[in-house]
Amino acid sequence: MATAVMEAQGCLADLKRGRRAALEIKEVTERMLSPEYKGRVLVELLQNAHDAHPARDGVGRVEIVLDEDEGEHGVLYVANGGRPLGYRNFEALCSIGLSSKRPDEGIGHKGVGFKSVLQLTSAPELYSVMRATSKIFDGFCFRFARDEDFDWLADQVAPGRPEAAGQLRANLSSLKVPVPVDDVPAAVVPFRRRGLVTVVRLPLRNADARQEAVRQLRELTDDGVPFELFLDRLGKVSVTHRVGGRGRPSVYTRKVDRLFASRGLKIQQITLRRRIRLVMVTAAVHCERAHEAIAAGIESGPLRDDWQALGDSAVVSVAVPAGEPLKRGRLYTFLPMGAQPTCPVRGFLNAPFHTDVSRRTMAEATQWNDLLLDTAAEACARASSSARARSTQASRGTSRALPERIEARSASTASRRWCGMASTEAMSPSVTSATVRPSRFSAMNASCTAVLRYGAPIRVLRAVAATSSATLALKIIHDAHGPRPCPTPSPPRDISLAFIVCGRTACRTCLGSAVGRT
Q1: Cα–Cα distance for residue pair 373/375, rounded to 1 Å
Q2: What is the Cα–Cα distance from 264 to 368, expressed in whole angstroms?
Q3: pTM here?
């Protein structure tokens, strides 16, 4: 109540002085920020639910329920376990761009994503507990203002001024006016009985909003782009679509088995819904290079000072199916980004990219994003080299230091998956003369191809990482191998195949011919 009164008093005082600061915030929120997140409401709410759990816990719970039978047009719920809603969270929800989280503390750290809910509802509601031992929702329980709420608010701050309600309604964003809720809706109560601590309730504004909620739910649960793949704080997500009195929950779990770990590199098997299995490689970003890239981003403008916290903790992960490779990969910032930009590998690549406000796309030509892509290339290279080495050791009976279970998986599963990917080029998409361009994607392709095919050492990869030219990257890799005779009289036009035609060796004849045709 105090927050709503303060905002209303400030709005009316500004109007009296001829200023329209509150209206500016309202316009930015409703006409600029919320539309930027079109189609991303569920993604934004899910990331907030994920961030409420302790880092690297892996046992967090989230429930998503779309109940088309409740209310006039249906209600969408997103509930989570973990930490209850605190005062800093409450302040952040009522503000714009003032997140309570740093980039290293969670997925959502821009302080604007919650504003996306206005696409589906006019008055979002939140219910939380005071402490983990609470039996009922007794903490922050409130909704944001409806039209009629501005009438009583005007009576509180400007009694005897009948025009005040209209002024507040026209100039003050509803998301700046939290209204306490004393009676928790009956449909919210069972979430607490199931151990969840915070519930976001969105009464859908109309039939179009209901259809959009259904579409987003289907998109989120698409098997082709598993949303839970990189949500390492969660162990279980339950999704229920209830219509006509029917609706059974679909449960999405995430099971992790370690295959291999060494010097900042992890290879894991991830088992998801319907026994979908993927092999994931995770690598830490080099601290010195990370701080250098972040400092450059802060100086040039894209990054804020709080990104410095990522310098010592950023990691990059690449996951590929344990079966047939994907026809097309997908970039993630913990949750799936949009279909564009194109993922440079035929798998799922996750990193804390600097993106647009909705996290759909990212700027490729930034030093921080460049570094993350380079780290992904190096991770693929190291994983391939490690898997081949383990496979060779196991075949010779020399890998005695590894536990038997890990040895077997490292030598067979990891080697077969990662080395096998080289033959299908899942980790290194083709870069043809028609599409090659100065980009880190091209350099990444070159380094992946070189190591997967020819085992180029990491020192070569670091040289590749220093250039944004695919042609120069290929030359660096080629020079590291030295001149060899070429058995192929007519090299292909595809630059990425310039090495492949020579079998296990690189050849200046092939390279010169291929580069000369671009």
Answers
A1: 5
A2: 19
A3: 0.76
Measured CA to CA, the distance from residue 344 to residue 453 in angstroms comes to 17
Cβ atoms 374, 443 nearer than 8 A: yes
Please identify which residue in the block is written with the tokens 């088992």.
Answer: 271
DSSP 398: -
Q: What is the pLDDT along the chain (518 residues), one digit of tens a residue?
A: 788 889 898 989 888 888 888 888 888 877 777 767 788 899 989 999 999 998 877 899 999 999 999 999 999 999 999 999 999 888 888 887 655 555 555 565 444 678 889 889 999 999 999 998 999 999 999 999 999 999 999 998 999 898 999 999 999 988 889 999 999 999 999 999 999 999 999 999 999 999 999 999 999 999 889 999 999 999 999 999 999 989 999 999 999 998 888 778 888 899 998 888 998 999 999 899 999 999 998 888 788 887 888 888 899 999 988 877 788 889 999 999 987 767 777 789 999 998 877 778 887 668 888 888 888 877 877 776 666 555 555 555 543 333 333 333 333 344 334 433 433 344 443 332 223 233 444 444 444 544 444 444 445 545 554 554 544 555 555 555 444 444 444 433 333 333 333 333 344 444 443 333 33
For 136-160, the DSSP string reads S--S-EEEEPPTTHHHHHHHHHSTT
> How far is it, in rounded angstroms, from Cα 510 to Cα 488?
8
